[in-house]
């Protein structure tokens, strides 16, 4: 797989993953920052609202004090009914207040805006009243209580009333509805993401939204549980802190003006985390879709690349096969051209050898007629000249025999042979031909089948190959003679129309000599072609072997590498029958028939028709070649 597709595959997974991680981190930071900003903003609004409510009620208490300023309690009792009606009107004008109280110094309620005549009520047990009695100045806030008269939860805001001398002279109280704060807080945060609380600086909760139990009543705070931001609120602004075992609560505290009140807004970080998880899940889904799309695109690209590679591989294989087929065709054509050239040479050589044979027969007959005609009257010079002529005819006869062998016109005595037995019996002659500097090694297959061949011609061919191997190794070496079964197919026999595909007996002779270049290999079987110096060879040795093997219906192959040596392999057809049990005599002792090429032509018979003794002596002529 190319590097570009690998990078694309990794990027299709890594890029959406990195985008998801980056988006998740950014979103978490943004949501956390948003939570801080929301707590800050909501606490500021809640603080302003609480301050407005407190100051409004403080003005109401101021108006009550103005109404009764300078009056003694006896005078207040005397004007109680008009004052009470005025307080009712004042109470109705303020929505966040449900009732107004005027309390005597002994803690008894003198006037009440929601009831006439005033019911007997004693506030001496109220903590906020005791604080006023103890000298607390300013506004004092009491904890939420369920009113016995209205059945509504309220908390009070009280102020100390003093005489001209500064002595405690009762209190002016207003009851405030927590629901007024809750309605405002709900309007500020309709989704309920934050918790709003109005507290005293000692930690007592006056109002909260949303509430857990819904009754609006709160227990006094446990010692040590009140945050420092409530006990000692900052005058400068907001104080934001994290609470909880997992720091899951984010709370902003703000002091309400100069009053002992604190507004807190708490945001759940778990809710923020949940929102973050939802956003991350949505982003992850989108990234997953994108990653799948990119991966699918990459997979398609990889599949297409692999398909192209397979096509290229097939094209490459096809091209290699085509090149191989072209090479095989070129080799076959070259072999066919070589075979056709050798065939043409064979035909030409056969024709020439036939005519040459007639001439040699005429010459030899003439020599015999001269010897007969001269008879005893011939002197030494004549007999010598006749002997020279007879020797020349013998040499020509040998040359003609080689030409006929190449032309595949010699008479063969084929029979079933055991090639191993023939090689072993012929080994001494081959070794003598190789000389002392060359070692002969035999590698014979014991399971070798019988072959069909002419024993004398096969021995001559092996001897010819051995002599060529010896000449190729002037410094000596090893010649290896091997026998083995072989099978040749049509491809190997493309240049040999005389042989058929099938089973053969292979006889190989390998040398470690100088070897032959390709240019020499192309012409090695041509008659009269030789690489030996002039006078050292006729160029008919391998051509004679070639013609003999082809005439048998076999095949001959030669392989050579310059500097490494050559190997010549003779492929002889397998015999269907077993070889004869008795071994043929050695070639030096075997009687040889008169060669067929020496038979006189018809014109010579007519010329010597009167010489019956010639006809009787024809079979007694010496064999030539």
UniProtKB/TrEMBL annotation:
InterPro entries: HATPase_C_sf (IPR036890), HATPase_dom (IPR003594), His_kinase_dom (IPR005467), HisK_dim/P_dom (IPR003661), HisK_dim/P_sf (IPR036097), Sig_transdc_His_kin-like_C (IPR004358). Its EC number is 2.7.13.3. The lineage of its organism: Bacteria, Pseudomonadati, Pseudomonadota, Alphaproteobacteria, Acetobacterales. It catalyses: ATP + protein L-histidine = ADP + protein N-phospho-L-histidine. The keyword RNA-binding does not apply. Residues 351-576 form the Histidine kinase domain. This is histidine kinase. It comes from the Bacteria. Keywords: Kinase, Phosphoprotein, Transferase. Pfam families: HATPase_c, HisKA. It comes from Siccirubricoccus deserti. One of its GO terms (molecular function) is phosphorelay sensor kinase activity.
């Amino acid at each position: 797989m190319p590097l570009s597709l690998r990078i694309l595959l990794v990027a299709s997974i890594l890029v959406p993953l990195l985008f998801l991680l980056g988006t998740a981190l950014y979103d978490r930071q943004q949501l956390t920052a948003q939570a801080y900003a929301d707590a800050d903003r909501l606490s500021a609004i809640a603080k302003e609202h609480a301050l407005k409510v407190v100051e409004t009620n403080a003005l109401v208490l101021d108006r009550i004090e103005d109404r009764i300023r300078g009056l003694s309690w006896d005078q207040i009792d005397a004007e109680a009914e008009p004052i009470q009606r005025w307080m009712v009107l004042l109470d109705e004008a303020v929505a966040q207040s449900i009732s107004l109280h005027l309390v005597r110094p002994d803690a008894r309620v003198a006037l009440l805006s929601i009831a006439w005549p005033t019911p007997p009520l004693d506030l001496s047990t109220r903590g906020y009243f005791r604080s006023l009695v103890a000298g607390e100045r300013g506004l004092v806030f009491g904890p939420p209580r369920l009113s016995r008269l209205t059945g509504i939860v309220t908390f009070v805001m009280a102020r100390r009333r003093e005489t001209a001398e500064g002595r405690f002279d009762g209190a002016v109280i207003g009851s405030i509805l927590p629901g007024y704060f809750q309605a405002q807080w709900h309007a500020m945060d309709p989704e309920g993401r934050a918790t709003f609380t109005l507290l005293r600086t000692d930690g007592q909760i006056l109002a909260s939204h949303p509430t857990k139990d819904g009754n609006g009543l709160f227990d006094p705070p446990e010692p040590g549980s009140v945050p420092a931001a409530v006990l000692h609120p900052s005058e400068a602004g907001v104080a934001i802190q994290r609470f909880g075992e997992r720091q899951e609560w984010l709370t902003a505290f703000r002091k309400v003006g100069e009053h002992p009140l604190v507004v807190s807004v708490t945001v759940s970080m778990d809710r923020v985390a949940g929102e973050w998880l939802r956003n991350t899940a949505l982003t992850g889904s989108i990234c997953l879709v994108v990653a799948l799309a990119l991966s699918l695109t990459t997979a398609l690209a990889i599949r297409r690349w692999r398909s192209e590679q397979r096509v290229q591989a097939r094209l490459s294989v096809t091209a290699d096969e085509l090149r191989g087929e072209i090479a095989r065709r070129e080799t076959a054509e070259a072999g066919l051209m070589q075979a056709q050239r050798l065939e043409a040479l064979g035909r030409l050589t056969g024709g020439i050898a036939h005519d040459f044979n007639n001439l040699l027969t005429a010459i030899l007959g003439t020599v015999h007629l001269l010897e007969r005609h001269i008879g005893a009257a011939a002197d030494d010079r004549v007999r010598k000249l006749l002997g020279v002529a007879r020797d020349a005819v013998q040499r020509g006869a040998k040359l003609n025999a080689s030409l006929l062998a190449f032309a595949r016109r010699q008479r063969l005595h084929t029979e079933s042979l055991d090639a191993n037995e023939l090689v072993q019996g012929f080994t001494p002659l081959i070794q003598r031909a190789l000389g002392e500097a060359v070692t002969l090694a035999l590698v014979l297959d014991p399971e070798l089948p019988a072959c069909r061949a002419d024993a004398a011609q096969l021995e001559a061919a092996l001897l010819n190959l051995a002599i060529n191997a010896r000449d190729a190794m002037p410094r000596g070496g090893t010649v290896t003679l091997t026998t083995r079964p072989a099978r040749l197919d049509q491809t190997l026999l493309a240049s040999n129309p005389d042989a058929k595909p099938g089973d053969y007996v292979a006889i190989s002779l390998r040398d470690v000599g100088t070897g032959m270049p390709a240019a020499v290999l192309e012409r090695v079987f041509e008659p009269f072609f030789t690489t030996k110096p002039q006078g050292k060879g006729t160029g008919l040795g391998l051509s004679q072997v070639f013609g003999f093997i082809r005439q048998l219906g076999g095949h001959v192959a030669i392989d050579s590498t310059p500097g490494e040596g050559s190997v010549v392999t003779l492929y002889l057809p397998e015999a269907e029958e077993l070889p004869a049990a008795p071994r043929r005599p050695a070639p030096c002792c075997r009687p040889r028939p008169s060669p067929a090429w020496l038979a006189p032509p018809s014109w010579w018979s007519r010329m010597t028709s009167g010489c019956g003794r010639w006809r009787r002596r024809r079979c007694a002529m010496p064999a030539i070649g």
